[in-house]
User: Which sequence fits this backbone?
């Protein structure tokens, strides 16, 4: 009887250990990407706010205006470089990429799909990919 | 007083269920139905809001038209209808989340226009009714697991 209780306790301890390891892994998986970033550096989502100001109208933004916005991003502390790609969802349409600063450091990026009104009245979805290189 | 063996078995079973749940959530981090639902609604919005120059399909024509209207109105001309369908397929391919197969059906009256191939393995569906001069147009977008 005593041996049975000891075996049960051992089994339960092993199960608890597995549970703790699993939960620890989940925590680490979520925490590691943020742990690499400097606390002072803006992340890609912070920088989207600046792009949003230019694209909110629904008109395809002017490349010069976007270039100035990207230059302003590079001036922020910890940001080495920024890149914005505008890729139409339809084939045979020109894609545009704007770069500012140096593409060095830790890269973070995200994609948004936005419908732009083109000259001539067309309304076409574009994939906007914003990438940022920051100090580690 | 208590059946200690029985309590231990229940505890073991509960622990086992918790561990399986945690492991499953680790293994399927991207299978979030709520996100996929948001994605399909966003794709549907973009499809219905896309407007193209008629000149792309009928050279010399003036003006723009919604993609779904072009699909409906071009049905009488096989060549133009084929070009519109090809454009719809390209757009659907671009907008569809990775790992899914997509089909889009536009119904107007008794006419039905299908883009892509319908499968039995439908994962999620989005249906919209659009009021039009000629009645109600129904747009149905389905995502199936590959």
Assistant:
């Amino acid at each position: 009887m005593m041996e049975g209780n000891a075996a049960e306790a051992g089994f339960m301890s092993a199960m608890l250990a597995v549970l703790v390891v699993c939960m620890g892994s989940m925590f680490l998986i979520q925490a590691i990407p943020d742990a690499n970033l400097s606390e002072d550096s803006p992340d890609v989502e912070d920088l989207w706010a600046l792009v949003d100001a230019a694209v909110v109208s629904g008109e395809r933004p002017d490349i010069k205006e976007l270039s100035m916005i990207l230059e302003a991003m590079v001036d922020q502390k910890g940001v080495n470089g920024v890149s914005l790609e505008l890729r139409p969802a339809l084939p045979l349409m020109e894609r545009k990429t704007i770069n500012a600063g140096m593409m060095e450091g830790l890269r973070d990026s995200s994609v948004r799909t936005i419908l732009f009104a083109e000259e001539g009245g067309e309304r076409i979805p574009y994939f906007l990919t914003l990438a940022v290189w920051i100090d580690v | 007083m208590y059946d200690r063996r029985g309590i231990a078995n229940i505890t073991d079973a509960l622990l086992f269920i918790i561990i399986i749940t945690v492991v499953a959530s680790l293994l399927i981090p991207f299978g979030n139905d709520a996100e996929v639902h948001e994605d399909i609604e966003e794709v549907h919005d973009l499809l219905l809001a896309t407007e193209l120059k008629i000149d792309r399909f009928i050279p010399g024509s003036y003006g723009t038209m919604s993609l779904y209207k072009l699909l409906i109105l071009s049905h009488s001309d096989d060549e133009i209808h084929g070009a519109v369908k090809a454009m719809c397929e390209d757009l659907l391919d671009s907008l569809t989340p990775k790992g899914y197969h997509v089909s889009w059906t536009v119904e107007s009256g008794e006419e039905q226009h299908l883009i892509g191939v319908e499968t039995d393995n439908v994962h999620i569906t989005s249906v919209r009714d659009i009021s039009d001069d000629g009645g109600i147009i129904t747009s149905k977008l389905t995502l199936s697991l590959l």
Q: What stands out?
A: The longest helix of chain B spans residues 4-27.
